[in-house]
Amino acid sequence: MTDGPFRNSKLSGRWKRYGRDLVSDATSQNERTAQACHSMLGDVDLAGISELLKGLKELTLEAQMDLDPVSLAESIFDNHIKAPLVDILQKHLLANLRDQMNSAVALDEAIKSAANAWIGETKNRIDEECIRARDIGDMTKEEYAMSISRNNETFSLIDPNALGNALYTGLKNTFRNANHNREGLDEGPDD
User: Fold this and answer.
1) Domain-located, residue 165
2) Distance from the first to the final alpha carbon of the chain
3) I need a surface site. Which of 10, 11, 83, 97 has the fewest CB within 10 A?
4) What angle separates helix 69-78 from helix 46-62, to the nearest 10 degrees?
5) pLDDT, tens digit, for every residue of 12-22?
């Protein structure tokens, strides 16, 4: 990867492509949003999180008969992957269960809250990469202003429910396919 504003970054190739998309007028907002989601999914152990979420979903079916769903949830987290996103999910789920929320609703709300937190953290990380790219000269001031604006717009359009569903299903290419739907060479951005 030799071009784009993130060329000197330690980001993955997916995020470097997203950086190129931020400064490209040929990329639509929908394509940028799909690329951001695809890149986010590439940053996590999707299979491990999917397995964890399926175990938690089974818990919601059994928890109606159990007096202590918090302990059951903690034991499921103890037996699955450890990752920052999982920590966020665990914090939200256990708080919801301690508030006596129905276990199915508690899980759905925890997934949505974790997705929202993940979206916010990732947006901030990309903002920081834009600042760094501007500071080292990989991005002009004009490209920087455009990138920050487009990054804010992109992350505001990410649907936390769709992201949570992708985590649950474990389908890594859920959002990638949106970038491959264009057929005509003369098509421009949707903006």
Assistant:
1) yes
2) 27
3) 10
4) 160
5) 999 999 999 99
